[in-house]
Amino acid sequence: MSEVVVQTEHLLRRVESGDTMATIVNGIDLTVYEGEFLAITGPSGSGKSSLLYLIGLLDAPTAGDVHICGQATSAMSESERADMRLAKLGFVFQFHFLLPEFTALENVMLPMRTLGKLSMAEMREKGTKLLTALGLGDQVNRKPGQLSGGQRQRVAIARALSNDPAIIIADEPTGALDTIATDQVFKILRDVANSGRTVIVVTHDVKLAAKADRRVNVVDGKISEIVVNEAAKAPAPATN
Ligand SMILES: Nc1ncnc2c1ncn2[C@@H]1O[C@H](COP(=O)(O)OP(=O)(O)OP(=O)(O)O)[C@@H](O)[C@H]1O
Ligand SMILES: [Mg+2]
Predict the structure, then answer these.
(1) Nearest to 199 by CA among 232, 157, 168
(2) Ligand 1 neighbourhood includes 46 CB (under 6 angstroms)
(3) DSSP 8-state class, residue 144
(4) Which of 10, 124, 220, 226 is the most buried (most CB within 10 A)?
(5) Which residues are within 5 Å of ligand 2 (an ion), measured at CB?
């Protein structure tokens, strides 16, 4: 059995909605394993992003807890949560949020610079390797405006991977991409999970979600269904 990387306990998030309070994440218990590719699906407004932001320590729960690599986080200070985010989590969003005045390589180096563990030469080397692995070896010095949507999203994935996080969190990472780029990005996320990282991806697209190891469907802030896809990780059958 692989190691538990994310565990949520009775996770609850309530927010002000006009004069009343609305419960947007309503008691979610979810365990995610090392190397697992997990998809979160559900109707618009069902609480997928809210759940993802709680798991990513970008929002704090009203009640309940998120354990990241065995550590409870709800009692942490904001700076401890920020340190945890930087060391353990990588983020990919629907829109790439790359800095337009920086090159692809400089964008990928940003989280490494913030973490501050590598020399400039080491960061350049690592960033170049990551971009090359994602098929962007000849684009390292281009700025986001000179790249296609799919290329930009691959730079964003390289940036998310730059500090070797245990967990990649992606909110509709293919929402703004065409079919070819969507397939590329999903294949990359699959490879990332196969390399031992945990990938949690929110998507509207049930066909894409079917490529994950497990799909969790969220309705009204609660898990309505969990579908396990035993075949997802299995090697392709021999053809002879
Ligand atoms: N900070 C907030 N304050 C008030 N309401 C919020 C807040 N964040 C989210 N909501 C509400 O909570 C509900 C869940 O939102 P969320 O963004 O998690 O849904 P979603 O499943 O990601 O939807 P979509 O598929 O459209 O992205 C929605 O009704 C939304 O309007
Ligand atoms: Mg959303």
Answers:
(1) 168
(2) yes
(3) G
(4) 124
(5) 49
Q: Is 20 in the pocket of ligand 1 (CB under 6 A)?
A: no
Phi, psi of 20, rounded to the nearest 5 degrees: -115, 180
Amino acid letter at 113?
R
240 in a structural domain: no
> Is the residue at 235 inside a domain?
no
25 C-alpha to ligand 2 centroid (Å): 12
Range of the domain at 150: 4-228
Ligand 1 contact via 151 beta carbon (within 6 Å) = no
Burial class (CB in 10 A: 0-12, 13-18, 19+), 50: buried
Give the CATH number, domain containing residue 97: 3.40.50.300
pLDDT at 238: 52
Q: Number of folded domains in the chain?
A: 1
Within the chain, residue ranges assigned H as helices are 48-55, 78-88, 104-115, 120-133, 149-161, 179-194, 206-209
Inform me whether the pLDDT recorded for 110 exceeds 60: yes
Residue reference for tokens 């490879």: 191
CA 49 to chain centre: 11
Is residue 234 assigned to a domain? Answer: no
Residue 5 to residues 78, 156, 192, 232, Cα–Cα distance (Å):
21, 22, 15, 19
pTM to 2 decimals?
0.94
Task: Give the single-character DSSP code of 196.
Answer: T
Question: Quick check: is 238 in a domain?
Answer: no
Q: What distance separates the 2 farthest-apart alpha carbons in the chain?
A: 66
- DSSP annotation of 237 reads P
pLDDT exceeds 60 at position 240? no
Give dist(CA 153, CA 201) in Å, integer. Answer: 14
pLDDT, tens digit (0-9, with 9 covering 90-100), for 47-57:
999 999 999 99
**The one-letter amino acid at 134:** L
